[in-house]
Design goal:
The chain has 2 helices and 24 strands. By secondary structure, the chain is mainly beta. The chain has a single domain, classed as Beta-galactosidase, Chain A, domain 5, CATH 2.70.98. The strands form 4 sheets. The chain has a 9-stranded antiparallel beta sheet, with no helix packed on it. Strands 6, 12, 13, 15, 16, 18, 21 and 22 form an 8-stranded antiparallel beta sheet that branches. Strands 1-2-3-4-5 form a 5-stranded antiparallel beta sheet, with no helix packed on it. The chain is globular, with a radius of gyration of 18 Å. The chain starts with 7 loop residues before the first strand and ends with a strand. It comes from Vibrio tritonius. Keywords: Isomerase. Its EC number is 5.1.3.15. Pfam families: Aldose_epim (PF01263).
């Protein structure tokens, strides 16, 4: 997807247009320091590219923009739960239509805020009142903040993730550090494992690292850079790549798509809904990821 070739629906400012891709509206940011895209469907960052560099974010060439299926790639928002612990898997906000709350821009960068509140559709799936805001701050780095607030009269419990797909030059060459050595291996039925503190991939992984450092680094020699992922408000980091066999079973990913992506996710993990983070009425929680290159 070439954001610059998409038709303009409306112009919000000197730096922000609303463009259309199939059934999905995307906020296209064109700034002297960067270009970026944020889908209103799913509140989904689909691109962040500092001027003169490769995109930091990977999107599948086979992603479906029908405003029905979740988008494959980018930074999907998993909330109010992460994983298949309830239906739909990864929650419902990545299938919801978000609203633009505000945008701010200057010569240093752009800030966009999207919002979502409960409605009759969400109440059927999850019978609670909430307010969720997504802040996307773009300058030399990409900072994404998921701010969730309990607007109900009773407590509720959640889990979630910022499911970042990183764009890498060659999955065989990358090295990941900072994720720690303790993880739950979802490919081994949730077995608790201990592994090396430097990760080089030779096969698919789906791991929940339970003691990550505040900053995880992905060395990407093909693109001659290091990606740093700084997470806050999380209790774990999920690392995922489906490898060749897995990619063949994902309809909205090409068979070779796994070669250029690596998921490093800021995650509030819970094995069941009741084990998540509980917010009392009026309380909020922020889940944050900041992605940069050096």
């Amino acid at each position: 997807m070439d954001l610059q070739k998409l038709p303009v629906v409306s112009t919000l400012s000197d730096y922000i247009d609303v463009v259309q891709h199939d059934q999905v509206k995307i906020l296209r940011v064109t700034h002297p320091k960067l270009t970026a895209g944020i889908s209103l469907y799913g509140g989904h960052v689909v691109s962040f590219r500092p001027k003169g560099f490769q995109d930091l974010i990977w999107m599948s060439e086979e992603a479906v923009y029908d405003a029905k299926l979740p988008l494959r790639g980018g930074i999907p928002i998993c909330w109010p739960w992460f994983g298949p612990i309830a239906s739909p898997s990864h929650g419902f906000v990545r299938n919801a239509q978000w609203q633009l709350v505000e945008h701010r821009e200057n010569e240093q960068g752009v800030v966009i805020c999207l919002g979502l509140t409960d409605n009759s559709d969400t109440q059927v799936i999850w019978p609670y009142q909430f307010e969720v805001k997504l802040y996307v701050e773009m300058n030399d780095t990409l900072k994404v903040t998921l701010d969730v607030k309990n607007t109900d009269e009773k407590p509720w419990t959640f889990s979630g993730a910022l499911h970042s797909y990183l764009n890498v030059g060659d999955i065989h060459q990358i090295e990941v550090t900072g994720m720690g050595d303790r993880y739950i291996d979802k490919l081994q039925d949730g077995k608790e494992c201990e592994g090396p503190e430097v990760l080089k991939l030779t096969a698919g992984i789906d791991r929940i690292y339970t003691q990550p450092a505040a900053v995880i680094t992905v060395a990407d020699p093909e693109f001659n850079r290091q990606l740093t992922i700084e997470n806050l408000g999380h209790n774990s980091a999920v690392l995922w790549n489906p490898w060749a066999d897995g990619a063949k079973n994902i309809k909205d990913m090409s068979n070779t798509g796994y070669l250029n992506m690596m998921c490093v996710e800021s995650t509030v993990f819970a094995p069941c809904i009741s084990a998540g983070v509980t917010l009392s009425p009026g309380e909020s929680h922020q889940l944050i990821t900041t992605i940069a290159q050096r």
